[in-house]
Design brief:
heterotrimer, A mainly alpha, B alpha/beta, C mainly alpha, A: mainly alpha, ABC transporter involved in vitamin B12 uptake, BtuC, C: mainly alpha, two-stranded antiparallel ribbon, 11 helices, 73% helix
Chain lengths: 332, 441, 286
Amino acid sequence: MQIRTLKDALSFGDLPASERIGFILFIIFCLIFPWIIKGGFAQAVMVQFLVFCLYGLGWNLIGGYGGQVALGQAKNVGMSAYTVALLMVRWDISFWASTPLGVIEATIESFILGYFLFRLRGHYFAIATIAVSLVWQQLFINWNFVGGARGIELPLREPPNFIYMRFDSDIYYHYFAFLLVMLAILYMNWFRKSKLGYQLRAITSNEDVAESLGINAHWVKVKAYCITGVFAGMGGAFYTVYYGYIDPFSVMHLELSIMIALMTMIGGAGSMWGPIIGAMILIPLDRYLGAWLGGRGIIGVDFMIYAMMVMIISAYEPRGIWGIIEKARRKR
Amino acid sequence: MGTKRKITGRYFLKVIVGLLVVGVALSMGFGMTIAQPPEVKIGVIYPLSGPVAHAGKMSKDAVALCVDYINNKYPDLPIPIGNWEGIPGLNGAKIKLIFADHRGEPDRGADLAKKLILDDKVVGICGCYHSSVTKTVSTVCEKYKIPMINPESTSPVLTKRGYKWFFRATPHDRIFVRDFFEFLELLTQGKVSGVKAVPKEEIDEIGVCTENTEWGAGTRNVIKEFAKKYGYKIVSDVIYAHESPDLTAEVRRLLAPKPETLMFASYISDAILLTKTMKEFKAKANIFWSQDVGFYQPKYMETFGPAINGILNRTVFSKKLFAVKPVAKYINVEFKKRSGVDFMGTSARAFTGMQAWAYVLNKAGSTDPEAIRKAAETIEIPGKELIVPWKGIKFENVGGETNQNTWSSGLIVQYQAQQPEIIYPLDVATAKFIYPWPGLK
Amino acid sequence: MEMLLSTTISALQMGLLFALVALGLAIIFGVMNIVNFAHGEFLMIGMYTAFLTATVLSVEPLLTLPIAAMVGFLLGIASYYMLIRYLLKGPMIAQLLGTFGLMIFLRYLAMCIFGPDYKTLEHGWLIGKSIKWGPVLLSYPRLGTAVLSLMAFGIIYWLMDYTRFGKALKATALDVEAASYMGIDTENMRGLAWGLGGATVGIAGALLMNFYYVFPTIGMLFCMIAFATVALGGFGSIKGAFLAGLIMGLIIDLGGTYVGPQYKLALVYLTFFLVVAIRPKGLFGW
């Protein structure tokens, strides 16, 4: 059973050769990136890209495969980030011990919410997740124990420190984030061939039919939502040690949830590579164009380009860029 | 089927390779910098877009003006930098500013700091307005051992972290709040010009109203601490959400116990809405004191005109200083010509911050970070060469704080006939204090 | 007691405004089952329209209402024919995220044109005036807003229940196919529903301009309150939006006064969540 799982996760044999080549190129690119590109900003953007890959891959599970528009990723990110930061600052617990706790925290929260919210369908579910994440943000802003609006700052430690994940250079963070993304990709690879994956897709295409086939739709959705929470939790823990400072406005913001969903949507929700393609386009666009325009005092053009892309894609090809690629492929 | 797959494979390969090439080209293109010797680069990070962009823009203009004075010859300028033509200690090297826009997001600020330090190879950083962004940016500076001078973030925590590469020129909220309570004490002793001794019972019931982000929450704690220390009672304590749709409930709650002294910490949007709501409520109190920022901006003054007369503000700058500081007057004329507004607290501090950078570089005589840090630790800039009314700039480690400018000080100003008149410190006061607060007319 | 009375009165005034903001959202959702995330941005554009008309032509802010309504109407129609029509063919995820795209686009377009500054109107018949009526403080702009929003509700109610247009709209909402067999031009009905939604929120924006400031990212906040209102009242119900708006006003003001201002938004969102989770169709939902 375990070996079967491992084999499923590691085997990409059922994908077309082109996708396998693309995947290998992606791995090589990420591996050699710090050595061929020396720019500090490029490196920082790359780390950001990897973090968003992680968020996107997680969201894709519920939003893409599951077809449920959950717009509360930020609260899972924040939940885990806060747990990790609190444990590290108040009780000096190492990153490696506090991260699992943070992830568990985010997962439990997802479970409880998912359990209650998945009785809702469609728009109601989407709106309820927004409401919950707003409530959490407001509570964290006013909760003094977690620093309230002032946030939490991690103390500086002598680098390199593997116990508290404090490094001088972004290279360490790059490889750590890359490792997380690789694990996420392998998990997704297993997931799409797993029972859960098939059940989820059956529910997406027709929930009533799936139910009549004996699938407990509610339970499957809750499970998928919990896994999404795990991904977001890992991203949140990483964010905490990477920036060393969190506040309710940076890790619990609704805009973060929206950004994650839109990014996956542009790349192609419900496809293996969609989230990565989305992040590959949007993160450099956001950071580079933002830095370039901001230095010149031009405001908002990057967001307008981004919004145009979202509108065009959702109107003409809801399956995103991946959908366009597949369409082109089928035509040949 | 086989051939079909091959072709699509090639197609997809092309897409991926294309994306990679574009990615690499972008990163290299932006990563490249063109070196132009005798130049010393300083990175300036401000919120140039986003909700507080107007403050960022004013600071940017002030910093740019300062650098213009340093780099070019202005023989009429009454302070030494007018004759410098570059940094004398660095053989006349010109300062080149590289601006970055953090939009008020701490993570974006940190990424941009990396860009400035690693890609643009700046010798130092100046900024960042928001205390939260200053936190992450100073952490990056500390990591890469690059000095940072912060002209305007007032969160007391910033200098309490033991950072060696972070220097703060402005007084922080503790100093401002302490000044205010000192002023109240002087008021009860009858030492403030224009009023007889005010019995303490008339002013000792305080209503505090602060916004709920980092800055407001911090200020509130400090106010509570000093109120206890000086023996004042806090009768109403209101925290509101920044950018609320409606502040009626807040104002009602604030005014219900009839506080005698009102204290505010608000950003501009909230300050406008609060003042409007208080006007509708016909709010009455004896003293109305606010913490610069929202209540002390050209926009605020033009919005309310004469209605705001009598409101007190803490700040570091006022036009009224021109009487005692001709240099400030001289520079303000040029600033108004270039940016369309007078110097206010934020922009004057940004100007001073950049000036501090120039002096530090001059003293260091090298662009080596360690030399710059040493120079910053030992520098003493006399107050007469600054536009702000401080004793000067000297970064010291005192009372658990590191590299705080201990020669800095705050002012308390009162709007009188739409002009901020200086009330405190008493020796530079430009007008008589109006007591009690006449209310919002 | 006095405090309770004056709080309740100002809460109801604010509530009427929230109801008017939410009205457009309720109409749109009722007719075609789509959630418009750009609704707050429509409000923002209504506010800017009022602001610009009032300052550039220096007219009384209250007289800008028809212009704001017109701009809102055109904006709604344009959004429908240029974007929403295509979104409706796609899956739900595309509908949600497509209106998100519209929201971001409008917001940053405003940022580009008007800059990030806060703008307020300072002169007008109502602005900055208030009257003390016993223990109760009545602020003219809020009172005026409440009265006008009540009138707007009246007009919409009449339009929906007593005109052919309203009946056609209701028919479209109930069953598109059946309505089109009856000879109703459902496509244009839907466009008009968007126009109507835009017009009501445009009016709300112009009213809000009398006592509030405008800046490009203002939409999100009011949009969330409008969502909460619509969720409480029931998606698609005009009567529901009206009552729920009043309830929202009461929650915000009473909660802000008695529980603590820092929790008032949390209370709004919590109500929102509880309603959606416990009674998804709201008070009067279909």
